[in-house]
Structures are given as structure tokens and as C-alpha cells.
Amino acid sequence: MRNQLKILVTIIGITGFLSSCNAVKYVPENEYLLTKNTIYVNNKKNVSNEINDYIVQRPNQIVLGIFPIPLHFYNVGNKSYVDNYEQWEQEYIDLDDETVIPSKKKNPSSKFKYKLNKWWLKNGEAPVLLDAKKTLQTTNNLKQHYYNEGFFKVSLSTKKDTISSKKIAVNYYVETGKVFKIDSISTIVESKVLDSIYNIHQKNTLIKKNKPFKLSSFINEQNRITELFRNKGVYRFNKNAIGFDVDTIHKTNTSNVILLISDSIANVPYKVQKIKKIKIYTDFTYNTKDEPIKDSVNYNGYLFLGRDKLKYNPKLLLNSVFIEQNSIYKDETRELTRKHLRGLNNFRSVDIKYTELENDMLETSIFLSPRDKFSIGVSTELTHSNIRQLGVSGKLSFTNRNIFKGAEILRFSVQGSFLDSKDAAENNNLLNAWELGADVSLELPRFFSPFSPNKFIPKNRAPKTIFTLGTSLQKNIGLDKQRFTGIVDYIWESSKTKSHSLQLLNAQYIKNLNTGSYFNIYSSEFKNLEEIQQGFFPNETLNKSNAISFINTNIDANFNANNPEEYKIAQNIKSRYNIITEDVLVPSVTYTFTLNKSENYKDTDFSFFRARIVSSGNLSTLISQQTDENNVKTLFNTPIAQYIKTDLEYKKFWQLSRENILAFKTFLGIAYPYNNSNSIPFSRSYFIGGPNDLRAWRIYDLGPGSTKTGLEYNVGNLKFLSSFEYRFKILNSIKGAFFVDAGNIWDISNSNVLNSEAKFSGIESLKDIAIGSGFGIRYDLSFILLRLDLGFKTYEPYLNTGNKWFNNYNFKNTVYNFGISYPF
Fold first, then answer.
1. Helix, strand or coil, per DSSP, at residue 370
2. Which of 572, 626, 664, 793 is least buried, going by the fewest C-beta atoms within 10 A?
């Protein structure tokens, strides 16, 4: 209650402060601050954002639908002082040599005060004063909109409501009348060539009898017909050849429509035209366009030209070309070719032009401007977490394009990190741990396969094959580890919004190089175990080499009956030891389906869905004949992880207004070990918390279930997460957000190590879902967004108190999350 009272007082205080600000400070006499626009359509208040877009003049931006913070920000500045200072300064400037009269005539504090006030005014938003011309323009816009929707008898009026002596609201009243509908449709196609094409596809028309007379329908029909003809070989056709003659009958609110399509352009009749020649310039640049061609190859009717020696294999490059010799002209093959050639990431620009030849034939010229064959990238990063007190990392990457003359891309990178780990062996030294790694990948713009895959995945689906090999060596953080990774990934698209990935191999081999030093590194854990040994087993010998066997021998069910707290501590130590020292081989097959309805990177109103299924160890355990002392099948003397895993992720974004967005994300993941494995490898398990997850908890801090293990790494094999985030603009590039995250991880294996509180047991386990809420500040630099989110623990399922709400909802227990870009 105390924390809730503090929050309430804070909110009231902020509200009172903003309310007390003088919003009309810079509103002149006899003018009004526009505070609100309201549109009423047929006596009903409009709630459509589409209609609101026709309003020309809008009130000052408000945050959270309540506070005009940018206006109050502006009002903090002293406009008169700025104007007087600039006038004063101008008077003391010598216009001949543009020098200022000696500084002794200036007051340094005045200069500072000027810059400060200038900053407030520049970063704030000046008051929006009611403009009668813009009100009239809004009225005309609304009238034209409804007229375009078929309401030919629409009428509008406005009413201004004076809120105070200097504040005003404008109401727009729209009476639409009855909508006009299409009564009859007839067509006049003067060209026989066009008429035959049109009649075959007439059933697809977007203008239909008894439908409302909408301008958008006619525009869409015009575009449909243009697309139809240009994809049926009529290269010269453009939409200006399409016209509509409309006769409206006001008594019956109906319209008769005549579709008119001319028979020629510039007195040249329309014809179906074919491609006769195709030329591909593989090294085109504007500066060398007039230089002579030095190399050429004719391959299957395609002429490849170069002002230098040809660097691309014609057969392989044609995988991205869909324009064919002797085929009719099509816009769609032109655009498909441009899209796929750009997708190779080998060319700075792709331009496709057509030239008309005799006998109405066409010549296609494809101009490709290649990127630099070699490029080098360098990046650095500073990190901080509850595991890494300080981290300095760097990456050097090298790219080789067109390495095998088929637009392939070879990438090689080396990366290194130097860390200050609180758990490292030499934890008194700065940057006492390090990690080095290297990765190499080869991207082929086609499927690499012993058989032809085009029967299943045609080349117009942008098939790619990516081979990846990587390794890393970690020293003195946790334990010394070495990782090897190998991936063979096949990627393709089935439509503009749907993509697929099939990783026939995603293998990871993790080897711990120094497991014997575990309790040297994690000495605090050994001290905890020593306290148990000295207090309950003084006759037993305990040292760092036999610590785990000591737990297995002595810390059993009988011990748990009388000493549950100590039993929990010992089992946590053992669990952590198993996680950190785990050697494992994970040979998996992964399929991922993605549905992304985003139009572009600026889209803020779309949905996203991704489903992934992973199967690990099935073929390897079938082939392997090796087993360890626990009868677990191994490969290279390493246990083979066998499990199945499924992830489902859904995201939805709603643009509530121009600067207000509601974002939702939900994730469900299940991983189940079987046969050769009793648990999921740590590197493939689920965790929760962190800047892109449950933001009120640090990474690995929560779960599983309602347990509070005290471990640094908490993982599970079932995960649920949902997040709501309301994003809004505060001031210029400064943006804000309020968010609520909910989720947790659980265990669904048959493991005996974890207690029932960590297990998922059905609907009743949903009470273990933790809830965090908070707010964030973001700074948008256009090319990158910097983010700080403050997460507050709202509901903590592991607390033993009766009330688990708002117990640590305060700034003392706030989790600060620094990040780049939005969390989802």
C-alpha cells in the first residue's frame, strides 16, 4: 500500500505541475489556441483515423492523450528575451568585416541565458493558433473525400466552441446523404488486340453493378487493366489510355458507367510485343558508359558484355534473370528480375531498359553496377551485466563478393572479448577473462544439391543456401569452454510475406576444457558446501575434487526430510555444476516458417508470425554404436542430445495515431527431451528476463516456476511470454513507452533434481506467471534507436507472502535495461 500511495502521489504531482503550466502564454490577443478537432458524421462522432487524416490543422501534440508536453516545453523559453538578444546582437555587428564589437560590451551570463531559452523554444512546439483558411481547407477535404466515396449530395458545416478566452475547439458536421450506386456498365475497347485480352479477364473487373460509386474502385480498375495489358505483352500501353464516362441520375441515386480504352498511343496501334535480344552489362558505371566493350559471351541467347573481363558465370547469374528471349513483354518479369538481382547483394544498382526494334520487337538491356569485391568492417562494444561487470569486445569482418563467379558471398569474421568477471579465477584483476572466436559463412544464391531442386522450389522463390562454420574459445569465465558450430541452411520465399528456412544441419559441439577447476572459480559455492559438511557431516572428507560425489552420497531424501534449506542449497550447487560443466553434441534439423505482413521498415501497423520446429539427435543416435557408463549414446565420446522443440511467436502492431503505437508480442516455446536425453542442453534451453524479454528481471534471474533458486543461470524447457507496449512521442526525437510484460519458464521433463514448484502441472501453474511493468525512454537517431527501459516487479510468484503484488515496486529494485532498437 505504501508503494502504491507513493506512485499515486507522484502521478498527481506530475498532473498538477502540467496543469498549472500556462498553455496560452504565447497566444496573442484576439487569437485562439486550437485544442481539439471533432468530426461528426450523420450526427455520430467519428472514430476513424482515416477520416481524421483529412484535417489540415491539428492541435499541439499531446502525450498519453492528456498532456501537451511539447507546448509546455516551448512555453518554458522566454521568447521576448531571445528576440531582444538577437536584435541587440545584430546592432553590434560590423557588416563590413563581420566582426563583433569587443566582448566587454556583452554580458557572458546573457549569452548563456539566450542559448538556454533558445534551446527550450527550438525543442518545444509553438502553440497552434486557429487558422480560418486551414479550417476551410479541412472542410473542402472532407467534402471531396465523401464525394469520392459516392456521396454526391454531401454537405458540411463547422462550429467553433470557445473553451476559454484564448482556447477554442472546432467541430465539423458532415451530412452524407444517400450513396450513389452503379446502375449499368458498358465498355468500348477500340483496339482489337486489347479487346480480346480484356474480354478473357472481364470477370475480374472491380467495377460492378449495384456497388457504391467509389473513386478508389475506378482507380483500382484502371491499375488492374494497365497491369493486365502490360503483362500480356502490350509494352506501349499506359493507364492514360483508360477513361470513364459517368452519367449520374440524381432522382434514383444511380450512375451509368462507360469504360473507354483507346486503340493507340501517339497514333501507333497497340500490339503484343516480344523480346528479341537480351543484353546484360555486368560492370556498368556511368563514368565508363562510353568506353568500348572488351569482353562478351553469348549464352543461351543472352549476351553478356563487359568493359573489363567478365567476372560472372553466365549460367549462374541467369538464376536471377526471368526475362526470356522470344517471350512476350511482361512488367512482372521485369520487376522480378530487378528484385532478385538486387537481392544478390553484389550490385549497387540494377537498371532494366527496353528499346523498340523493327517488326515491333524489343531489346532488353540490363545494367548492373557491381559493389566492391572486397570490404572490411570493424565494430566495438562495451557491455555490462550481473555476470559481466565490464566487457570490451571487438569484431573484424571480411567480405568477398562473387568468389566463385556466381554472385556468392563469403564472409569471415574474428571477434574477441575481454571481460571483468566477478566469478573468474583472478577476480582481483581488471578484464580477467577473455573469449576469442571466428566464423566463416558462404552464401549461394541458389540451392546447393546433388539433384535439381527447381521442380520443388523454382528459382523465382529466391532460393539460397548458406554454409556456416564457427568456433570460439572461452577462458576464465564460468569454465574454459570450446564451441564448434556447423550450419547448412536452405532459405526460400513462397510469397511476398511468407518465407521458409530449412536447416538440414545445425550442429553444435560444446567441450569444457577445465572442469576440475570449477570450485576454484566458484569458490563461494564450495564455502556453502563446506558449511553443510562441517555442520552435518564432520567426519566426512570434503575437497574441491570430490564435492559432487559428496552431494550424491550424503545429500539425499533422508537429509531433505530434516534439513530442507540445506538440501536445497546443495542441490542448487549440483544443478549449477551440471549446467556449467555440460559437454554436449547437438545435431539438429530445424524448419522455420515466417509470415511478415510489414510493407517496409517504417511500417507501424502490421502483424508477424513465426513458427519453428527442431528435432535433435534422431539420426545420430540411430547411427552411433557408442555408449557411456550411463548407457547414453555418444559421438566423439560426447553425449548426443535428443529432443524435440517448438517455438511459436506472434507480434501485432496498431497505429493508433501518427505518433502513438500499441505493440503486442506473445511467445510460447516447448522443448521435450526423450530417449537418449533426460534434459535439454543448457545452450538450447529457455531463459527469461533481460532487455528484450521480461524487463523487470535480469537475464536468467527468474524461474523456473515459483522457485527462487539463487542460481546465476535459471533455465527451463517450457516458456511463455507476452508483452504489451504503448509507444508515443514526447519531444522531437525523444520517445517514450509504457509496457507490461508477463511470463515465466517451467520444467516439463522427468528430472528429479527440481521440486514440484518448478514443474508445469497444468492450468494451476499459470499462477506462476510473473508480471513486470514500467516505462522507457528512447532516442531516435533515424538510423538507430537508443533505448532505456525501467522495469518494476509487479507480481512475484516466488514470494512466500500472501500478497505477491507490488511488494518490490519501487526504484530501489528497478531493473535498468539498455538496448538498441525496440525490444520487439
1. strand
2. 626
Of 217, 232, 230, 229, the C-alpha closest to 182 is 217
User: What torsion do the CA atoms of 526, 530, 533, 534 make, to the nearest 10 degrees?
Assistant: 180
Cα(653)–Cα(666) distance, integer angstroms: 12
Give CATH for domain 181-269. 3.10.20.310
Q: Give the residue extent of every domain in the chain.
A: 2-175, 181-269, 274-370, 388-493+500-513, 516-580, 592-675, 685-824
Rounded Cα gap, residues 570 and 529, in angstroms: 7
pTM: 0.84
Q: What is the pLDDT of residues 501-543, one digit of tens each?
A: 999 999 999 888 888 888 877 777 899 899 999 999 999 999 9
Q: Could you tell me which residues come within 8 angstroms of residue 803 by beta carbon, excluding any fewer than 6 positions away?
A: none
C-alpha cell at 385: 551485466
- Reported as a pLDDT band with limits 50, 70 and 90, residue 96 is very low
What is the chain's Cα-based Rg? 35
Report the CATH fold assignment for 685-824.
Porin (2.40.160)
Q: How far, in whole angstroms, is CA 152 from its chain's centroid?
A: 43
pLDDT tens readout for residues 565-613: 888 888 878 877 887 788 899 999 999 999 999 988 778 899 999 999 9
The three cell numbers locating residue 152: 454526391
Cβ atoms 422, 403 nearer than 8 A:
no
Residues listed for the chain:
824
Strand order in the sheet with 633-635: 626-627, 633-635, 638-639
Asked whether 731 and 120 are in contact (CB, 8 A), the reply is no
